[in-house]
Amino acid sequence: MPRRRGRGVANRPYNRGMSTQNLETIAAAFLGYIPHMRECGLSLVRGSPEGVELRMPFREDWVGDPIRGVLHTGPITVLVDSASGFAVLAATPVPETIATLDLRMDYLRPALRDKDLHCRAECFRLTSQIAFVRATVWQDDREQPVAISQSAFMRSSTGKPWKPEARA
Amino acid sequence: MSDAAAAPLADPFREARRLARESGDFSVLVATVPYARYLGVQLSLHEGRPRAMLPFRQELVGNPRLPALHGGITAAFMENAAMLHLLYQLETTRVPKSIDFSIDYLLPARTEELYADCEIGRMGSRVAQATIRCWQKSQERPVAVARAHFLLMTPE
């Protein structure tokens, strides 16, 4: 299957996204290795250099307003931050250390209890130093998002690749 | 949930708010928001204003190598600081609804407690604007700043 790449930027050496297989290996290592991602039960639904989709299962602790039966926005932000970081890693040739510079969330409609959350994040512009990401969060219907987000990440200045380590 | 249906005008936060205002005990107020309770957010009064604190736990780590807290946790904690500040200050009968939230990360959040202060920039009848500042060891070196809008539900 030919790999789709966007708008020429992918031709530069620092902009070649990693293979899907490599991404799945990295995701499995990450999701098991990062304590708060493991705690949230995040899983990779699909991923490619063009974007990643993570799933976060419902948990009673995620409720923000028990009277209205609505989830808190906090866990949604955790999911978006995680997925957006993944989208950057997926877009780079080898995993590298990244840092979130800023993140903006718009909460379009209430997220309801008892339902999983899904997040699709796409790195839509990657420079040698900065990555720009947008993300969408939904529950049942992708066309009815509960939140959208835009964020910027700083790429590793050392150029050292990130290596998954043995679990402590 | 059935309680709310039976008495839609009751203020579920009245007792929690009274306790916080009169004795500085915010635990009941925090307990009204399950996610705030899960995070372990604590509040206390500093010069008459609520200050939020998040004790460190291993499950909140996002980068085990630095090590640092998960960026989403810093954001979620700051959202909670603003939300609980509004619940405390207002006579609102519902948890304020987040409209939007924007955070700038200034430093990695280390594996120790987080603190946050919240300032209400504008308090309208329907919408509140909040600025949140978050720090760890030194208040002069914030790890993140954020701003947010909330939709309020106040008694008619």
CATH architecture of chain B: Roll
- Which regions of chain A are unreliable across 5 or more consecutive residues at pLDDT < 50? 5-11
Distance between the termini of chain B: 21 Å
- Here the CATH topology of chain A equals Thiol Ester Dehydrase, Chain A
Task: Give the CATH class of chain A.
Answer: Alpha Beta
How many individual helices of chain B?
5
> Biggest protein-protein interface?
A-B, 40 and 41 residues
Instruction: Please state the overall shape of chain A, judged from the principal axes of the Cα atoms.
Output: globular
- How far apart the termini of chain A lie comes to 38 Å
Separate helix tally of chain A: 3
State the total count of DSSP E strands of chain A: 8
Kindly provide the name of the CATH class of chain B. Alpha Beta
Low-confidence runs of at least 5 consecutive residues of chain B: 1-8
**Can you summarize the main beta sheet of chain A?**
6 strands, antiparallel
What's the total count of β strands of chain B? 8
Would you tell me which CATH topology of chain B applies? Thiol Ester Dehydrase, Chain A
Helix content of chain B: 25-40%
Describe the fold and architecture.
- The complex is a heterodimer of chains A (168) and B (156).
- Chain A has three helices and eight strands, in the order H-H-E-E-E-E-H-E-E-E-E.
- Chain A has helices at 20-33, 35-40, 73-91, and strands at residues 43-48, 51-56, 63-65, 70-71, 98-107, 117-126, 130-138, 147-155.
- Chain A has a six-stranded antiparallel β-sheet, with helices on one face. A two-stranded antiparallel ribbon of chain A has the order 3-4.
- Mean pLDDT of chain A is 86; it is low at 5-11.
- The two termini of chain B are 21 Å apart.
- Chain B has 156 residues and is of the alpha+beta class.
- The radius of gyration of chain B is 16 Å and the shape is globular.
- In chain B, the strands form two sheets. In chain B, strands 1-2-6-7-8-5 form a six-stranded antiparallel β-sheet, with helices on one face. A two-stranded antiparallel ribbon of chain B has the order 3-4.
- Chain B has one domain: Thiol Ester Dehydrase, Chain A (Roll), CATH 3.10.129.
- Chain B is built from five helices and eight strands.
- At the A-B interface, helix 2, strand 3, helix 3 and strand 5 of A face helix 4, strand 3, helix 5 and strand 5 of B.
- Strand 5 of chain A pairs antiparallel with strand 5 of chain B.
